[in-house]
Amino acid sequence: MSIRPPTLREKRRYLLARIDPAGTIVEAKDLYYAVYEAVVSLFGDVAAAAMQPSVLAVENGYVILRCRRGAEREFAIALSTLSACRDCTVAIRVLAVSGTIESLRERIATLVPLVSAALGQDAAPAQEGTADPDTCRYRFGSTPVETVVWHGHKVDAIEKGFKNTRRLFLTTEDLEKIHATTIPDGL
Question: Is there a contact between 66 and 15 (Cβ–Cβ < 8 Å)?
Fold first, then answer.
């Protein structure tokens, strides 16, 4: 069987989206069912079949999605209505639309090192439950915190407590107040 020439292939569009809140771990299969349910509940079965939504990959807090060309606007609208994936609350924020998966993977590669450099780490942003409170580099007041992600004007951190953990959302103003005493130089 020969490969179809580009003129006969079905045109697709690929969407790059960020999974919020940062540090949330979702499975691609569960996210596919949640995305498809969001599309069907907003536009109906016929439009969902014509749109052909699909989740291709979940990587480093980002997801690559696919739909037919011409339906990317409606697909992005349906993604904005998504509020839960299985048992966890999530939001999908569309960052870019492209005609190739490769260009979106390159964009992820440029986004992840920026976040890692801002955190002073060699790898991707830390996930929940990975830091030891005794060796924690960051403190908010006297409480050790684990930094999850740094998106421009805010920092998401997880406070490690004796009985529980809670998520902290710090703004630029909070960082300016505590910068000299808690955040190491070089960030």
Answer: yes
Structure tokens at 6: 């580009």
Specify burial of residue 109 (Cβ count, 10 A radius: 0-12, 13-18, 19+): exposed
Structure tokens at 177: 């107040």
What pLDDT score was predicted for residue 130? 40
Domain that holds residue 113: 12-117
Q: pLDDT per residue over 94-152, tens digit each? A: 999 999 999 999 998 887 655 444 444 443 343 333 444 444 466 666 666 666 555 55
With respect to residue 47, please indicate whether it lies within any of the assigned structural domains.
yes
Name the DSSP letter for residue 156: E
pLDDT, tens digit, 9 for 90 and up, residues 155-179: 666 666 656 666 666 666 655 555 5
Examine the domain organization and report whether 84 and 169 are in the same domain. Answer: no
Instruction: Count Cβ atoms within 10 A of the Cβ of residue 40 and give its class: 0-12 exposed, 13-18 middle, 19 or more buried.
Output: middle
Domain CATH for 75: 3.30.70.3250
Contact between 140 and 182 (Cβ < 8 Å): yes
Q: Give this prediction's pTM.
A: 0.63
Cβ–Cβ contacts within 10 Å for residue 117, how many?
Answer: 12
